[in-house]
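Worked example

This section walks through a single chain of length 236. The input is the sequence exactly as stored; nothing has been trimmed or padded.
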Amino acid sequence: MSADDALFLDLDGTLVGIAPTPDAVRPASHLLELLDSASRNVGSALAIVSGRPIRQIDSMLAPLALPAAGLHGLERRSAGGAYTPPPALPRFNELRAALGRFAADRPGLLLEDKGAALALHYRARPELEAEAIAAVEAVLGGKRGGIAVQHGKAVIELRPEGADKGAAVAAFMSEPPFAGRRPVFTGDDITDEAAFRAVRQRGGVAVRVGREGATAAEWRLADVTAVHAWLADLEG
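Given that input, the structure is written out below as tokens.
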């Protein structure tokens, strides 16, 4: 990393640990200082690129209000503060009701309403993975109609088509202060693979957090603690 790079960071599993439910995640006490320092070191060319809505990113990292892409790139806030809202999820109410009933009948499952996306979490009931996948397909009824289905770590997410983390990185890279810099993306999940490919296509660096799984990233960090240590090293 150098002061001429642009730094893009996933949140859950990268900057903060994975918890049984999204609401249970708490950032380490030193994380805000690390991010603030890293942002200053790269001339404010640091953005959070997460599956969470931007409102949740801001709540978790307050008082910082960094450039951010939420919902895997469906919504975005530029370094200048310009906000691009997410499109509506087709059949949202129908899907929320059907998957909500499915989750309610199976203690341990959680349907997360992200506003423009739905996420069915089975982390507490991993034995229900196949049943959860089948339920999503049954609810969709073979009619995707503008709906993207994204599988992640113990979660299945339904969101509008047309965006991913790679597209979010590309959008940031067309704007100041990111434009003209070498992009560096760090993430831990299959949802980050599009961003890994995007930064490598631009001559950048992709870093996968965790040792498991095939990846387009050429570098790895072991875990969240290793990411924090790496960010701390950037201060030097």
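What to look for: Residues 47 and 234 are 16 Å apart (CA to CA).
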